[in-house]
Amino acid sequence: MRLYLASTSPARLATLRAAGVEPVLLSPGVDEEAVAAAAGPLDGPGLVALLAQAKAEAVVDARLDGVILGGDSAFELDGAVYGKPHRPEVARERWLAQRGRTGLLHSGHWVIDHRGGQVRGAVGAVSTAAVTFADDISEAEIDAYVATGEPLLVAGAFTIDSLGSAFITRVEGDPHAVVGLSVSTLRALLLELGVAWTDLWNIPRL
User: Fold this and answer.
1) In the chain, what are the domain boundaries?
2) 83 bridge partner residues
3) How many Cα atoms occupy the beta-carbon half-sphere of 20 within 13 Å?
4) Would the pLDDT of 206 be above 80?
5) Is 72 a catalytic residue?
6) Which residue is catalytic, options 31, 61, 72, 174?
7) Containing H/E element for 50?
8) How does pLDDT run across 55-65, given as a tens digit for each residue?
9) From CA 24, how far away is CA 40, in angstroms rounded?
């Protein structure tokens, strides 16, 4: 059973590999801002669910035989929903606002059953985790972190599996949701489609 990952996220790839799955990588090429704008106002869970579905559907091809996974993440603080900051000044501003605070990281998942080269079904779900940041993060630390470039292309301007981990004091909920792919949520969605998680294991273990 092949898993096709409609994402270019290194964190999602690493998470799947650690869980025993080597996916086939496909770049969805979705204009996220255009899709979100066309949909109108959405809350955090609604936004990531929409974009995860758009990414999965964008790579559907008759030559694919297996299951397709699309994913997307967004960070919510005080009711405002944030995606990737892209620019250093935006990332810095967000860190100044979120240090010492708790926000919600929403990760959307959309799975298409494409066994036999055709769409047989699709299901989706959103996993959310509450993330608390240290209250003693200095502006010098923020500037140093932003200068690495890491926070520019990730939801909420932070990671939990790399340099940003030192600034996070607590995670409540599924920690994999913070990475952008909840393995337990993915397993549950596959079960809905009649696919056993263990059928995706394709990385030999010693």
Assistant:
1) 2-200
2) none
3) 12
4) no
5) yes
6) 72
7) helix 44-58
8) 999 999 999 99
9) 32
